Amino acid sequence: MFAMARPPLHTTPSRAGARSSAELEFERLTIPREFSRNFVTRLLVDRAERGGWEVDRVRVLHDGTRKVVLRRKIIRQPRPVYV
After folding, report:
1. What is the pLDDT of residues 35-54, one digit of tens each?
2. CA dist., res. 58 & res. 53, Å (int)
3. Closest Cα partner for 40 from 11, 13, 4?
4. What is d(CA 65, CA 44) in angstroms, rounded to the nearest whole number?
5. Nearest to 35 by CA among 68, 72, 69, 71
6. N or C: which end of the chain has fewer CB within 10 A?
């Protein structure tokens, strides 16, 4: 189908600073030029609706290949304290 570069997903502190405990998770996709804009749009909308991803950046290379970086929040739940 298309190449999905799957390095270990990394996290980075959110830009909101210390007032938020959320972190961001990133995923990188490489989509060849053979896929139409409509197909790529449907693919990214599907990932947004089902996986909670949003587009961080899209780079279209000179050969037509698209490099897409998706991100989503990781919200860590505090452990319950039993007394």
Report:
1. 999 999 999 999 999 999 99
2. 14
3. 4
4. 15
5. 68
6. C
Residue pair 74/23 in contact (Cβ under 8 Å)? The answer is yes
From the list 71, 39, 66, 41, the residue with the least C-alpha distance to 53 is 71
Report how far residue 29's alpha carbon sits from residue 19's, in angstroms, rounded to the nearest whole number.
31
- Give the type of residue at 78: P
Nearest-5° Cα angle at 32, 31 to 35: 90
What are the C-alpha distances in Å from 37 to residues 32, 52, 65, 77? 11, 21, 11, 38
